[in-house]
Write a structure and sequence with these properties.
With about 400 residues, the chain is α/β, with parallel strands linked by helices. It starts with 5 loop residues before the first helix and ends with a strand. Its EC number is 6.1.1.1.
Length: about 400
């Protein structure tokens, strides 16, 4: 489909669009007016991970097209816990923990969005309105617009019940609170668009309907992205070593660069479109690379994504570290590292560096002959590595290298 607005043209050409509530209406509005749109993020940890990156990029595309993005932090909804995709209830966090997480997460958004200027992004916290709602007031004002029949059809509820896993009454209310967010953002900021992942479609439609029924006199819109999976069918960002965090204190720029450098051949073009600002003509050229030359496209992807999050200097340093390590066989100070305090077990080193998720996995890798210490194979899973003077280099396969510091 051809669009008139730069917003939907960008989203379409870069393959962000999965569903829209009214494509023609949104396109017409975006072509003539500035739209305020939002994406919601829960604050369950001090950092978001790369699985949230496509939603962050949606807000970036919205701003690049001349519109106004709102980052909605779920300081209130995090107190409840989103049941989507979960078999068990989330651990409830204190208000202080949630606010500390929001402060930590904000640093990442400042890399992707401009919080100054005519269409400056804003970050808001739904705790500002949700925590002040009286229970009876909420029941009377919002309750009549929801039916239990409809709520039971939502995937977040159906999946939990189908698996015979408990769904608390607290969690059951999550969809009501999320819908109420759209109503508040429309009233406070003139927000007319919610964006999110495909698993949020029902919640987005709920928010549109609730806001309309509670007095919105203009049309509201929703857009979702497809579930981003890798070529082998796995969910984006899931690795053996755990989550690929966006905050530097939880994942080094070098490890972040390596995550993108290790992208499967079949995913490179898709990821270049979704996660970089490289123009489509250049991506088209990179898509024609074959054989060993496709590594140039992977390096371009790693450099662009790392520069966007951590800065140009960090991307260049990571690329140079990788070149020295893989092409020249040398180690570099920019490699991920772990303190040994004079000695460390090979299992603790492998898990501490994030190369393996558990001691069991580390033992299997050693048995497979995939682990090397200073380029010499390690065969004993009980090995205690003495580190004195210079750092030692520990490697897992050909692509993961780390330093054991004295």
């Amino acid at each position: 489909m051809t669009y008139d607005s730069s917003l939907l043209t960008i989203l379409s050409e870069r393959d962000y669009i999965h569903q829209m509530t009214d494509a023609e209406g949104l396109d017409a509005l975006a072509a003539k007016d500035t739209i305020t749109g939002y994406v919601g993020f829960d604050a369950t940890a001090p950092s978001l991970h790369v699985g949230s990156l496509v939603q962050i990029m949606l807000l970036r595309r919205l701003q690049q097209a001349g519109h106004r993005p709102i980052v909605l932090m779920g300081g209130g909804t995090t107190k409840v816990g989103d049941p989507s995709g979960k078999d068990e209830s989330r651990q409830l966090l204190t208000h202080e923990d949630i606010q500390a997480n929001i402060a930590s997460i904000r640093k990442v958004f400042e890399r992707f969005l401009d919080f100054d200027g005519p269409n400056a992004a804003i970050m808001v916290d739904n705790d500002d309105w949700l925590s002040s709602l009286g229970y009876l007031d909420l029941l009377r004002e919002v309750g009549p617009h929801f039916t239990v029949n409809r709520m039971l059809t939502f995937d977040s509820v159906k999946l939990r019940l189908d698996r015979e896993q408990p769904l608390t009454f607290l969690e059951f209310n999550y969809m009501i609170l999320q819908a109420y967010d759209f109503r508040e953002l429309h009233g406070r900021h003139g927000c007319r668009l919610q964006l999110g992942g495909s698993d949020q479609w029902g919640n987005i439609v709920n928010g549109i309907e609730l806001t309309r029924r509670m007095g919105a006199g203009e049309e509201l819109f929703g857009v979702t992205t497809p579930l981003i999976t890798t070529a082998d069918g796995k969910k984006m960002g899931k690795t053996a070593a755990g989550a690929v965090w966006l905050n530097e204190d939880q994942l080094s720029p070098y490890d972040y660069w390596q995550f993108w450098r290790n992208t499967a051949d079949a995913d490179v073009v898709k990821f270049l479109k979704l996660f970089t600002d490289i123009d489509l003509e250049e991506i088209e050229k990179l898509s024609k690379l074959e054989g060993a030359e496709i590594n140039q496209a992977k390096i371009a992807l790693a450099n662009a994504t790392t520069a966007m999050l951590h800065g140009e200097d960090a991307a260049k340093a990571a690329e140079e570290t990788a070149r020295k390590t893989f092409e020249e066989g040398r180690s570099d100070d920019n490699l991920p590292s772990i303190a040994s305090n004079g000695s460390i077990s090979v299992l603790d080193a492998l898990t501490g560096l994030g190369f393996c998720a558990s001691n069991g996995e580390a033992k299997r890798k050693i048995k497979e002959g995939a682990v090397k210490l200073d380029d010499k194979p390690v065969s004993d899973p009980q090995l205690l590595i003495a580190v004195a003077g210079a750092p030692a280099k520990l490697s897992l396969g050909k692509k993961k290298h780390g330093l054991l510091l004295p």
